[in-house]
Amino acid sequence: MRVRHGSQVSLLALVILAVGTFLVNSTLRLGTDFRSSKYALTCSVAVIVGTRPEVIKVAPVVKRLIERGTSVCIVNTNQQHVMVTSALKRFQLDSVDMSLISGNIYAEGPAAIAGHIMLSLNKFMHQVSPQVVVVQGDTTTAMVGSIAAFYNNITVAHVEAGLRTYDFQNPFPEEFHRRVVAVPSLLNFAPTPRARRALLAENIPSSRIWLSGNTVVDALFDSLSKPIPAAATALLQRIAGVHPKGRLVLVTMHRRESFEAHMEDMCDGVLDLLTQVPDAVVLLPVHTNPRVQATVKHKFGEGQKRLIICDPLEADIFPFILKEATLILTDSGGVQEEAVSLGKALLVMRAATERPEGVEVGNAVVSGRSKEKIASLSVKILTDKAEFDRMSQTHYPYGYGNSSVLITDVILSHMKNGKPTSAPMSAGPHEGGGDKDPAEKQKSWSSHQDPAQRGPLHPAPHVPSLASLLPAPAASRGGQGGGADLVVVLTVFGRATLDLQMRMLQPQTAFKGRKTHVIIFQNGKHQNIDANATKWEERGIWGGSDVTVTFTHSTLETGYYGRFLAPLIVNSQPGAYWWIFDDDVIFGNRYLENCIRVVDSGSIAVRNGRFVGNKREVAPGMEAWHDNYQATWDDDIAYDFGGHIWAGRIEWLKLAWQNPPPTVAQSEDFWISAVLKAKANVGTKKPRCPKPPHPQADIENCACSMWAAMKRKYAIMGADVNVDNLRASTFVTIHDYYDFRPMPGIERKDHHDIHPPGPKQPFNLAGTFHEQCMWFT
Asked: 54, 138, 450, 546: which one is catalytic?
């Protein structure tokens, strides 16, 4: 596919051509033949990496592309040899290793590195000819990768586009690199509205820009959703051994513009901090760059009291250390994004930052690189409780952990159609007035905070405050400390099914290695479950799993929406998962794992799915009740919305309540899908329940409704308001409020294999919870 560009290329394109011509004149000649049997490479998408941050930020996109059946080549330029190799291993990514960078070349600086990379990348692209080349950020690798792709008429997709300081010396040379990459990039993925506006100001057409959020948040939450590595635990124990009640200050520094004198000042600031705050414990992972190592060794020698110097932390360890830190001092870009997403107080040791969103929401302060400023600001944060509390609130200016889903959708749409099938995600109109961007009507994850796109999302005057009906955040009863990784809400209302559902939770494989908080949410006075709830609060009943149970009872009925606030009343980890279960569902012991897989793909998981009809109603014929039938489906099925069980990320649920429903009378099942689709591009899917011989054919992956579902007690709101007869009107209200766009008919694939009673049914349900299933679709 030939890449065509308009007149906006102008001066900067000439810069690219000049740089490219210089690089091609490099004397290095590599004889690698990428079509040889050793490589035998064919791929549709080539992802170019050379540094650890690049690997971390592209890994979620690579994962999504592979899940969608795309052939991907990961090309490693080895700009950071040890660190990038380790990161690739952590994310289980195989790469084409260019083996270009030697220690001598690294010492010669960016021009030498760029020259050595260019020839080999150019040869790779000429021989392999991928449809799309993905580059990330602002490294030398990203810049050269975009130029090489441009020369070979290959589409460039730039992840993390539009970051700017407008100062070529801060950061150096990254500010120049990212300005260059924007010109040949046909697909620019801007992480924030500010980044998008910067691209528009440089005359990059809006048709080439998507507001995506930052994939570093995807990677961060994915890492924290896994069990903590033993090495991370050991390091935290080592830190605690230095000062049992100490507060961890995590320090990272590596930027080229900080080398020598500036970095020495930064080290002096850290020493002053240690002197003035007696309970501070500093952890300093040292970058592999020889100049950084020389400075650290010169300033700290063999170490200082309450200062731990270590090698760079592995990509799966760093998030857990970051999560435990009280204060972060850094000159890194990615660490800024991660720290803010975890609600950490942050000192940016740079003259300027291209990520000012962290400053704007209150988590970050730009200190510069003087030792006096670094020390004084750090001491103030650590000794002034009001200042610390102000800077330790969690915000999500960089996304909610599903950026890779949108990026993958756009790349695949471009490969299929030559251009994306829908308008780019937009944060608002062009700067400076004039006509609004046609894409403005498209919603994005950040629209709740960008005034240019924020719709009429104030609650309607008649909406009651559900938060006032719920108890204060619950404390863990006997837990091991820290927030939950999984939050599970069981609804107690009109059916006496609590004990049965708790027995289904007891063997869940998802609980292993994760901290789980189960909330028994009783709505109204229809059941007496005190004895049952007390029994399940005993930790020994959970067979070694780290499960805490909280019983909360709202005697004032909260209708259908109250339970959707329940996951937020307990302390949870960033990236945690939540479930809400109706009291009429049955699920196998691997069902929660099945839901996690769907959530990780960027969709909420539901027990059953529904489509929206052309009259703004539930499409007819969506509920098929079967007596002793079974139904199977080999793949996850996408729907407009769903019900009976819901699962997602805690951050998604918080976002949903930041954009509250226009009514809380009815249609909560439609609301959660509508708001997350509008505000975060989160879809809705029913997890697969395949039949043999599919490798995942196991009844324990599946869920259904039980016979008790046929006996229903209708919800009321408040004292005596029956809200069930408001389904039709509330559905229309929510539909219009969020400007809901139903799935096109061609994408509606509600395909099930229906198995009537008889010997050919795929599963023997005898002796399982599923024996009580009333319907299986």
From this structure: 138
